[in-house]
């Protein structure tokens, strides 16, 4: 199997490359602009907003499976550059879908819990998207394009956490640094997600890429938690006083767009398919990250 990973230099992309390398899977890696090598895969910069560049790189890649994790993913960046977000997230995904369909290649498309408005939480696959942000809207539009083709699976993912393997710190890394140094950090007490470790996400996605599942699946963690609870439990795990954490509410924080309150995902569909796949609790996932970094 020859796998094309888009967004390969991103946080999730790095974990995907590491997982594929561990399984000795031949991998083609597209990045945004980064060059070099990562986990044995040569990074090729491909602009997802450039149809000709995407088509040329796809034909050269000759994949059997595509894991499409590439996106303009920072919500603030999408708000500031809505046209760029549309081209990369929506149109770029549509082009990749067309190319995959033409060559009968399986496509796994990574989507997000932020396609929901957060008014209810515990969202299932058949719940209607109602995004509040430019980012969410472009990802919802991408889903529509992807689902128009056969052999495609949309995987909506919740908040991903873990230590970086690509050289740029994650927000999780920043929280760990704040906890160890007593640096003040503000965390929302009224915003809930179902956080999933990057390690678990990568192994689950590679398994799905090798399957024949199609449609939509939700892939979140086993616990619904506020960002504040995540921070407090991280502090407890590290054995530090949580006094560095300042609890805030969404209404107190300046934001260019509305923040959804509760985008927790119901992942029972995925669990029914993979009941034996590791699905660690928050503390168990933390132990994996810190054990591997020692």
Commentary on this structure:
With 294 residues, the protein is of the alpha/beta class. The protein has ten helices and 14 strands. It has helices spanning 11-22, 51-61, 75-80, 82-102, 134-147, 171-181, 198-209, 227-238, 268-273, 282-292, and strands at residues 2-6, 26-31, 36-38, 41-45, 65-68, 106-112, 152-157, 160-161, 185-188, 192-193, 196-197, 215-219, 225-226, 245-248. An eight-stranded mixed sheet has the order 3-4-2-1-5-6-7-12, sandwiched between helices. A two-stranded parallel ribbon has the order 8-11. Helix 1 packs across helix 7 (198-209), helix 2 runs parallel beside helix 4 and helix 6 packs across helix 8 (227-238). The longest helix has 21 residues, at 82-102.
Briefly say what this structure is:
With 294 residues, the protein is α/β, with parallel strands linked by helices. The chain contains 10 helices and 14 strands. The strands form 4 sheets. Strands 3-4-2-1-5-6-7-12 form an 8-stranded mixed β-sheet, sandwiched between helices. Strands 8-11 form a two-stranded parallel sheet. It has a two-stranded parallel ribbon with strand order 9-14.
Task: Name its key features.
294 residues; alpha/beta; eight-stranded mixed sheet; two-stranded parallel sheet; 10 helices; 39% helix; globular
